[in-house]
Amino acid sequence: MEIHMIPELRNPIMVIAFGGWSDAGEASTGLISHLLNTIGSDEKASLIAEIDSEEFYDFQVNRPLILISDSLIRNLTWPGVEIFALPHPQGERDFIVVRGVEPSMKWRAFAAELLDFADDCEVSLVISIGSMLADTPHSREIPVSGTGAHPEIAARLGVEVSRYEGPTGILAVIQDACVKRGVDAVALWAALPHYANGTPSPKAILALLHGLEDFLDITLPQGDLVTAAIEWEANISTLVADDSDLAEYVVTLEESKDSNITAEDNGEALAREVERFLRRQLNVEGDSESQS
Hints:
The chain has a single domain (2-260), classed as Rossmann fold (3-Layer(aba) Sandwich), CATH 3.40.50.10900. The chain is 43% helix and 22% strand. The chain is an alpha/beta fold.
């Protein structure tokens, strides 16, 4: 790992996302990019470390890219992982965000290297962000679930215990390493419609943003995500309408989704929306007072 600096942050939270297996609709890495482009604007975000790609990547699987500048200079870009310090002045805690391509090999060594750096930065909580394909309709709310890898941690942080069994990715390896080190760790996963996987999903990014807000009880900037999510849903609806078989299938998914929503679910969803609205209003009032 190439460490550029150890930042001075307030009780930092590490938020992690990787492209590849756990990045359906580019939603998880899209969330990291959104945080960097909003909270991290005005040069607030700083690159603090990079993980060496030579040790952890198979370049026949994740090939380097050649990019040509305006002056026709060829630059070789290698797959890898970047780690940014992201101060959050509106909140009580700052962020360290991690994004990159899922490594090809030596996952345990990779997780150890990342968490050693997290220890150096005094990270107290690791949040893994993932997105997967599922039988869910694009026209309904994108479901986001929060899980913990250990019953004690899950109970303390107020999330469900992960009951998944089967093949897994680097996020689960990092969570397991966190448990063994005694570091609090949770995972937030968004479920995207499998028939809409061809394009990036701002609606899923927005759902993950809301999930992160609700879990941390904070307000994060939405930027243009709301408008982009509406446009994405409209575009997918147009594509679905052009395929009668797919349209019929989506109706089936919608009916199944609606029939499984209880009054309690609707009440909880409304309560979350009200809480987000109130947090945003408090932030607006706080910003106004600080400027006056």
